[in-house]
Amino acid sequence: MKTLVIVTHPTIEKSVINKRWTAELEKHPEKYHVHSLYEVYPDGKIDVKKEQELLERFDQIVFQFPFYWFNCPPLLKQWLDEVLTYGWAYGKSSGYKLGGKKMALAITAGIGEEGYRPEGKYKYTMETLTTPFELTFQYIHADYKGIYVYYDMEQNASDEWVEASVAPFLGFLESLKAECPSPAVQERA
Q1: Hey, how many other C-beta atoms are within 10 angstroms of the C-beta on 184?
Q2: Rounded mean pLDDT of 81-109?
Q3: What's the rounded Cα separation, in Å, for the pair 66 and 50?
Q4: 12 near 22, Cβ under 8 Å?
Q5: 90 has pLDDT over 90
Q6: 8, 65 in Cβ contact below 8 A?
Q7: For the whole prediction, is pTM greater than 0.85?
Q8: d(CA 60, CA 144)
Q9: Is the Cα dihedral 46, 98, 65, 159 positive or negative?
């Protein structure tokens, strides 16, 4: 079963980890279908029907993005607003087209994990900050499988740090195929 990975990074060519993850996924087209929103929609004009048809083809969907201002990049928010429509993704007569599909988040964060603790700099955990995604997936009856977070990009962007992120990231994606993966997976290198 192939996994759809929706990559949302506005400057992927300047990225460190998201660029590396995407390159790794593209080595395995039999396992992963990479869909880069900023490449497909550089003008921000989303083809809703095309996106809905794409989503219907996959049972596992992962949203990969850098954590910007405690949220996702703007095109992903726009995509959620426009693609998850009433009558298709939710609503009495929708058939909940994404119902039962496994969905997860793969996030890169600039600061270390300690900053995302109640006693840390930002006071909230990554699970708390990503609750709107969890609720969105619940609302459309999808099966939310949690998040994978790779921390500390601002302080530790060495080649070794980037390479250390690849195997755990792929492991998280593979865990989605299991019947009962952990509901919230976080990795620390």
Answers
A1: 18
A2: 96
A3: 24
A4: yes
A5: yes
A6: yes
A7: yes
A8: 10
A9: negative
Structure tokens at 73: 């990049």
Q: Which residues of 106-134 are buried (b: 16+ CB within 10 A; e: fewer)?
A: bbbbebbbebbeeeeebeebbeebbeebb
Residue with tokens 């990231």: 169
Percent of the chain exceeding pLDDT 90 equals 80
pLDDT in tens, 127-178: 999 999 999 999 999 999 999 999 987 777 788 888 999 999 999 999 998 7
